[in-house]
Amino acid sequence: MEETHIMQNEKFGAIGNQTAQSHSPGxxxxxxxxxxxxxxxxRLQQFLFTLFRMAAIxxxxxxxxxxxxxxxxGWKAITWGFLTQAPTDSMTKGGxxxxxxGTLCLGIGAIGVALPIGVASAIxxxxxxxxxxxxxxxxxxxxxxxxxxxxVFGLFGLAFFVIWLNMGVxxxxxxxTLAALTLPVIIGSTEEALKSVPDTYREASLALxxxxxxxxxxxxxPAALPGILxxxxxxxxxxxxxxxPIMFTAAVFYSPSLPTSPxxxxxxxPYHIYVLATAGTNIEATRPLQYGTSLVLITMVLGMNLVAxxxxxxxxxxxx
Length: 320
What we know:
single chain; mainly alpha; MetI-like fold; two-stranded antiparallel sheet
């Protein structure tokens, strides 16, 4: 009995010592310091999240203002005849059908050329190329190429495709020039998408006996496809809205007929807007046509992007 009482007293004494230590001044100071640090980090996080939300809201507001302004000025010009007829009377009347067809040909053609080449280049750089100085130089060149002004690509297309390869001012010359313009964007986004695929996917596929190409084709590319489509969306948006490259290689001032071959000259919406805003003696008379054409261009770009975004969202759902 005495031994039992002694053990109980020791147990309660240990608990009392722990309680006393937990309420000691040193532990209270540490606890208050921890709370201050946690509160400071929480406030910093809330501040940064607020900045991010404001940036997103500002971007959305700017887009809404631009679209609202263009739509408010140009919706009166949108008629069935405006969308289905060729321009007449020095482009002060009629429609913009040749411009719409030309823009679609250039945008879709540029993506059709640039996307396979860009994806193949990104696969080589990320999956096959050995790390080293040469690979760093290639990536540096791609990054610098993405920052080159579009007018420089236009002059390159004029000198190389139009004159040296004797393609003339044509759809093909414009498509190849726009493909060169969008290629760095597609390579960069595709390479980032491939890097985001976990290495465990590759290791598991190789462990099951698949070859490296089978692993890339059947495992890595499907997992990276949403990111690749993001690059395609960015490239398509840039190709459809560029003016400087096509004014030297593909677009002409006036061409009422629709293109019949890859070597046909075409009209395009961006260049048509430029012509309406700068050429002629009565620019104010064509102001509604300028806003109407701009509204059609914005709608086309947003529509093509929306199709690609919906497709990307469906692919992501299938992967989940």
